[in-house]
């Protein structure tokens, strides 16, 4: 018996990683084609080998990527294809607008060279990666009718990459790229303050590049504070630990800071412990500006429906709250204002709201 969708209206997704949203069949195809060993030799076996059913430690979670990314990284054909198939996947989930993120450097080569980037003969460069992903996304947008933009990730453990990432954001602004992100292990103490990251985010501010930062998922509320005060982030990826600092939480709530919440991910990464109230419930009750997102659906064996069902069944979320959070996602997305207005109008119509004048009640 087919489960009734938790929310069968158009959705907006702002936090999903391209390298964590690849079809197992595609990984298998390129593993075989390129002679790269994988942990299983069938799509179902691969899905189970890569996927998680129970919470794992952060190192064990990150090791999942190492088990399959060599089949994709460094292949021009594979990089373009996973971007195209990503849009098809989101179309099936009822998503009308999505921002997908990735590290150009990690997709460029199966083996990441020491920084500065050493281009060996035949290697795909980070610049080429962005061009290929943008091409695949644009072809997917044309074929599947989902509006899609991309976010380029700096990595906390590689501050020497960050300036190049921002330069790529500037170069490809007209070809899907809308923002920069800082991802990776936020428990690296002071990594928000690494000069390479700070300099890159200063350049992003100066150049009008939008900014988001992973903060407060595994790290403390102080990491969120650094993301806001030092990196001048406009959105926070995850951000669950912000509630540990009530003054900071109140400040960001008043400033309408957007939190990219990933409920099912937070369970499997241990960012949320079952038995405790999930921070997203507090966000809901306090009418905070947030969205629901999948994060890494390949590894979490999920779709966006997983996160909607989890919040509906286990946390009492209603259709009205789903409407509110999607409208807030649209308002907080990194599209230009005219395109953002078109997206909001699409949602208002689909949600049975007479006009954008109704938006005030969905803050």
Task: Summarize the structure in words.
With 363 residues, this protein is of the alpha/beta class. 45% of the residues lie in helices and 13% in strands. The protein contains 15 helices and eight strands. It has helices at 24-34, 43-50, 58-68, 76-92, 104-108, 126-144, 162-171, 195-207, 221-229, 246-254, 263-268, 279-285, 304-315, 319-332, 337-350; strands at 11-17, 95-102, 147-155, 177-183, 210-215, 235-238, 258-261, 290-292. The chain has an eight-stranded parallel sheet. α7 runs parallel beside α8. The chain is globular and about 50 Å long. It starts with 10 loop residues before the first strand and ends in a 13-residue tail after the last helix. The model is unreliable at 112-121 and 357-363 (pLDDT under 50).
Search tags:
363 residues; alpha/beta; 8-stranded parallel sheet; 45% helix; 13% strand; disordered C terminus
* Mean pLDDT across all amino acids: 93
The end-to-end distance, rounded to whole angstroms, is 37 Å
Biggest sheet strand order reads: 1-2-3-4-5-6-7-8
Helix segment tally? 15
Uncertain segments are: 112-121, 357-363
Taken as a percent bin, the fraction of beta residues is 5-15%
What is the CA-based Rg, rounded? 19 Å
Tell me, briefly, the overall form: globular
Describe the biggest sheet?
8 strands, parallel
Kindly name the structural category.
alpha/beta
Order of helices and strands: EHHHHEHHEHEHEHEHEHHEHHH
**What's the helical proportion of residues?**
40-55%
Number of strands: 8
């Amino acid at each position: 018996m087919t489960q009734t969708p938790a929310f069968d209206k158009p959705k907006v997704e702002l936090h999903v990683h391209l390298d964590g949203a690849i079809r197992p069949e595609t990984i298998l195809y390129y593993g075989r084609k390129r002679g790269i060993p994988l942990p299983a030799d069938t799509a179902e076996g691969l899905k189970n080998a890569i996927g998680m059913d129970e919470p794992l430690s952060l190192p064990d979670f990150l090791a999942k990527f190492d088990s399959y990314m060599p089949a994709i990284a460094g292949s021009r054909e594979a990089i373009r294809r996973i971007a195209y198939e990503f849009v098809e996947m989101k179309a099936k989930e009822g998503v009308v607008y999505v921002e997908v993120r990735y590290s150009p450097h990690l997709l460029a080569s199966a083996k990441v060279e020491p920084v500065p980037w050493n281009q060996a003969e035949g290697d795909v460069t980070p610049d080429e990666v962005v061009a290929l992903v943008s091409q695949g996304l644009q072809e997917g947008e044309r074929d599947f009718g989902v509006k899609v933009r991309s976010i380029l990730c700096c990595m906390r453990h590689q501050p020497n990459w960050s300036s190049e990432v921002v330069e790529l954001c500037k170069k490809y602004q007209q070809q899907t790229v809308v923002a920069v992100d800082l991802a990776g292990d936020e428990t690296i103490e002071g990594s928000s303050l690494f000069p390479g990251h700070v300099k890159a985010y200063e350049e992003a501010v100066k150049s009008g590049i939008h900014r988001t930062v992973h903060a407060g998922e595994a790290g403390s509320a102080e990491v969120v504070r650094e993301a806001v005060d030092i990196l001048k982030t406009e959105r926070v990826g995850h951000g669950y630990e912000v509630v540990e600092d009530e003054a900071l939480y109140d400040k960001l709530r008043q400033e309408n800071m957007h939190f990219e919440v990933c409920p099912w991910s937070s369970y499997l990464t241990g960012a949320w412990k079952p038995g405790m109230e999930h921070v997203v419930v507090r966000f809901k009750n306090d009418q905070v500006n947030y969205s629901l997102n999948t994060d890494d659906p390949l590894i979490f064996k999920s779709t966006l429906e997983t996160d909607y069902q989890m919040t509906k069944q286990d946390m009492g979320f209603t259709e009205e709250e789903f409407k509110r959070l999607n409208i807030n996602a649209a308002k907080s997305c990194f599209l230009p204002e005219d395109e953002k207005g078109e997206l909001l109008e699409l949602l208002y119509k689909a949600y049975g709201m007479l006009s954008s004048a109704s938006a005030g009640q969905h803050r």
